[in-house]
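Re-running Outer membrane protein assembly factor BamA to confirm reproducibility after the cluster update. Everything else is unchanged from the original entry.
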Amino acid sequence: MNPLFPSRRRTLVTTRRVVASMLLVTAAAVTSPVIVSTGFAQEQIEEQKVTAVDIRFQGPETVAKERLRGMIGVAPGQTFAIDRTEEDIRTMIESGEVENVRVLTDDFQGGLRVIYVVETRSGLESVDFVGNTVLDNEKLRKQVEINAGEKLRDAELVEAKEKIVDLYIKRGYSDVSVTYRVEPSGRDGFDSVTFFIEEGGKGFVRKIQFEGNTAFKRHELRDVIETTEKGWLSFVSGSGKIDKFQLQEDIRLIEGAYQDAGYLRARVVDVERVPVDDEKVDLIFKIEEGDVYTVSDIKVEGLRIFQPGEITPDFLQTTGVPYSAKNVAADQKLIGDYYGSRGYADANVEVIVREVAPQEVSILYSVTEGEISYVGRVDISGNVKTKDKVIRRELTLLPGDELNTVELAVSRARLMNTGYFSNVTVQPTVSSEEGFRDISVNVDEQNTGSVSVGVGISSIDAIVGGITLSQTNFDLLGWPNFTGGGQRFLMDARIGTERFDMSLALEEPYFLDRRLALGGEAYFRDLLYLSDDYDQREFGGNLYLRKPITEFSSLKLEYTLQQVEIRDIDNNASDIIRAEEGEFLQSRLGLGYILDTRDSIQLTRRGHKISAQVYGSGNFLGGDVDDWGFQLDGLKFVHLPYDIIFSLQGQLAVVDGDDVPIFDRLFLGGARNLRGFDYRDVGPKDENGEPIGGQTSLFGSAEVTFPLIESVRGAVFYDIGVVSEDSFDFGGDLNSNVGVGLRLNLPIGPLALDFGIPIQSDEFNDSNGKFQFNMGYKF
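Result of re-run:
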């Protein structure tokens, strides 16, 4: 076998390094290997029969030949195919044990011998650390999670370096610097890794100060930046840490706030760290504000298709007022969106700001319109488990539509809102068809399933432990992983001193491939906390259809079939309570409407939620329960200065029927409405003072919350409500309370603490204050 004679030896595939006339490709590109044939056409090579397969090592042999043979699909007796060698290279590289592969061929016994020349990865002999004084070697080894004997991989070394940096930052060493070096260990086929650590100084933020600021007060600038002072909950919230990258972002945020107020030349010239003690520093942002600039003129040039009068009336930035970088950026986007929403995806808008006089600027928007485009193909990539149709149904553009860049952004937002992906890009690409642009959708999938185990305590149902299994990207027919179909699955079980619940729920949000959700739930509930005189057990299920009407509203049609048992009646219970004992079969149909514009569910600052529901049981639906009712709910949030949030809440509910059972009657009181009273304790009662519920309830609440320290808000509130015995009767005893509370937004879950003091109450309720709380832990 003489390499000087190309007719005797041919190089077919090579990865990651150049050898003579062989072409280099990287391991990362091994999915499309480059084929190089010397002396023979590819077709001639592929016509030959494989007579032998050999493995040769370049460098130390750190992987057994037998293991490599198990990764090779080419075998004697086969007709040679380059596709098979490509697959073999992929398999070996993806195993993580092989660094480089070349495939050679030569003539052998009337056929072709295929030779895999393999360079294997070095093994790890040892991991060492230099420069660490705060953390010992053992703790760092546990952090990096790379061990002697493993194969060395560049990505894992980079990840280990980042883990060391993160660990130091958590300890307050924000200026830590970590590098690493890989060296031969002296043992054939093994290398040693040394991490070099420059720890820097430790410093948590005690106080944040500003110098040179006259336009903004200290608290206003503190609200702008992300770096925070160390608080008493810093061990949970992580406040007070110094991140050099975050400081750069804080500088940009401060300068942006000034530019939005007309201070065009404002800048942060320095961020000084003043040591307070061994662990704390004060941060001082030094600011040069400069002068306020007024806009004297605004022009738009380059318009051929549209006229300035179609666009400029909606501008936020106007003449005669201070320059605002935020408004100018919004107007630039407005022009781009105006073109982009009409098919001009390539339109470009450049902003030119000129100083035309002392403290005066002019703004020029220079537009390059481009040509109108239409949607060609829609290509989807990155989805390993999520089905293509689950992604496509969230896209608001179809092939043949005008290419609307606003709809591209809407499509991306809709995909992100599914919660299936950590990142989504939706962008136009070059099409092979003139006048068209293809759309490339690339997604990075994330975990959508979770198992959580927790324990909670509240003033309503005491101590509760539970386990929840959820999958938001479920596929009922997708055996064996059951993921990727875009369905929502939830299994939940809770057990405590006052309750035992189990439920199983499934929802298909695109029933029959339409924007129509079909869902259902099966449940068992043993509720011991509703009354001191009886227990309530529920077993059943429901089916529902939900149809979105607008972006913020929907209609829901729901059917429920359940068996309700009133049981374990106390010996001293009244005749009214005793009359409720027994089992009931309830067949119920309901129709509901929801309008929800809240900006956040966790901490709502703006928006409102309105819901209305009407329902009926019995009659043509069958069952033992024959009643009907409706409920109206409203919530309104207003965001005030200094992050004060004002909210109003109201509810009206009525139930009617010849003999409304106690489990369908209405109650008020407790942590969710009248907080100065015990749970369900407001309303009609029997002769023993035990709540028996009413058929009309009306409730209202006003609340103001305000920030105290990080993750903690104070609250003051006023609640008022009435529960009447008969339907459409608002003449019951009025009950009201005032109170104060705390709202803690913790990583382990929300905690609400309220103390309500009754102002008005009926004869069965005392005027003592009530402490209400809801708390949950996850681990």
